[in-house]
């Protein structure tokens, strides 16, 4: 399947894309998969990123010479963003909290929003950029005052309520909602071709009980909207919406829902292996929470996606 760039600006290479921030597991996964699909990748990492990630990039560079260029960038250093985007036809953007400020709070929400604004503005100023894939979250969808009374399932049309997130200190939901809305507003105003991936809880090697997505997990479970996504599936979804010329708008991305007691227990043991065995009454609980969220739009798009195919 060929990439989406139908009309490219001067100086672009249809096979060259940028991954920002590549410091996290999603960014690293995207870099690896894109190179395997014969793209040249500009990988943007934090100046003080994870040492393991840096070693992994060294391995990739040795294996795929001339396919990977590393850029150190700060989302508040506008020129460094411009430099990383130069010559690229697409951008995969995902926010990674700074290494010295890993905790989500109200301050981090402001940081994420300003970073999204800077990156989209840089894309608008880069003639070669044809498409942006913006990583958001299911938490930008599910936190609504009417979430238990709404008649239809939650989908791409729904947004989390910013005031509810702020009142209950759901900082992850607040950050993702405002940052994504900021990106959409700027993209529409400046004519940037953007799609967003609203991901469930990412089931990757770095999953831990401190993940800010988990704030409000009990409520998401009871509401039938507690969803997870395997890291490989999430990577594939990003590449699919980039390469498919028909992709548009938002896409909810998950491939599992936590809606049974055994599902919740299994996740709890992954997050905290020392979790004690539940009481007998819990084991006898066969209740299944009705699923109240759907990702049909993405599933339809991915039907013909070939994971192993290369760019043309």
TrEMBL record:
This is Hopanoid-associated sugar epimerase. One of its GO terms (molecular function) is oxidoreductase activity, acting on the CH-OH group of donors, NAD or NADP as acceptor. GO terms for biological process: steroid biosynthetic process. It comes from Trema orientale (Charcoal tree). Residues 19-182 form the 3-beta hydroxysteroid dehydrogenase/isomerase domain. Keywords: NADP, Oxidoreductase. InterPro entries: 3Beta_OHSteriod_DH/Estase (IPR002225), NAD(P)-bd_dom_sf (IPR036291), NAD(P)_dehydrat-like (IPR050425). Belongs to the 3-beta-HSD family.
